[in-house]
Design goal:
Elements: E1 6-10, H1 15-30, E2 34-39, H2 45-51, E3 56-58, H3 69-93, E4 97-100, H4 106-115, E5 120-124, H5 131-135, E6 142-145, E7 159-161, H6 168-171, E8 182-187, H7 194-203, E9 212-217, H8 220-233, E10 237-240, H9 246-252, E11 255-258, H10 263-270, E12 274-276, H11 286-296, E13 300-302, H12 310-322, H13 326-336, H14 342-351
Parallel strand pairs: 1-2, 1-4, 2-3, 4-5, 5-6, 6-7, 8-9, 8-11, 9-10, 11-12, 12-13
Length: 356
Amino acid sequence: MKRSSSFVMAGGGTGGHVIPALAVAKELRARGHSVRFIGTRRGIEAKLAPAAGFPIDWIEIGGLNRVGFAQTLKSLAELPLSIFEASKLIDRAKPVAVFSMGGYVAGPVLLAALWKHLPVVAMEPNAVPGFTHRRLARYLAKVLVSFEETVRYFPPGRAEVTGRPVRDEFFAIGPKPLGEVLTVLITGGSQGSRTLNRAAEESWPLWKKGTVRLIHQTGERDYQDLAAKFHAAGAAGEISPFLEDMPKVFEDADVIVSRSGGTVSEIAAAGKPSILVPFPGAADQHQLRNAEAFEKAGAARLVLDSQMTGARLVEEVARLRSEAGLLERMSQAARALARPGAAKRAADVLEGFISD
């Protein structure tokens, strides 16, 4: 066992950045190491890190990529002070290495760490690396990626395909035999998706009775309005603002309709066929690239946001069901993209920088 050491986790803002970092942090803690997060008070890390029992320190920084001229100027003005603050926090934590999930929060922390010649291990879950990791690619000690096509963005020998940390419950989901009624899970994430919510509503009168059961996570914003309409329409299934036990819901689903951010790792782990609708405002079109990679592998159908309607949703589901064996083949293709043990591998890499 490696001697007890300290590590800093950088990256925040969204669950896609924070939840995988928490998985790695928990693995490090289980091995006897101390872990601190650096984030902003307005990011989701401000809630999730303390809830998981990890100390967190604060910096102030905004985004730089696709945020508009005024926000870019504001973020650039904040950057020197943010790097200085991150540098002081790193001095206090005395980490062996810094782990990054990317995002604008990670930028000042990584710059401060590299200035101090600390090794930085980055995890890049998207097919196209985010702005921070792409700009600092040549300086990163190790990069853990989810897609083979992502390796080319980093210096030779620097990137390794490990996947993104996913809860064990998703990997434990077994194949589901098809029945008379197809269960379709529609989820735009915890915040919901207006496009998916609208398409779901439009689809209610179009389904052939007795063929489909819908499980729809709407997000809090649209729930009250949609729930009343859902019940009035007599649609089969259930509607909820937030689904607490997502592994159980995945297990029940035959097809998942989703955005194509971090959820794609859970879809792969569960081996579920999917219809992916990339969020068009995602930085560097990374959701589109993720969906393209899944479609190329035969694991998903890609539908552009501008083309997703109720009629298109019904058409895509009908197409998946009509071809004999297609859903089974998509399930196998999805599971082939899964990479178990990502958090453990990240912890192994980070421990590799502990000097004996």
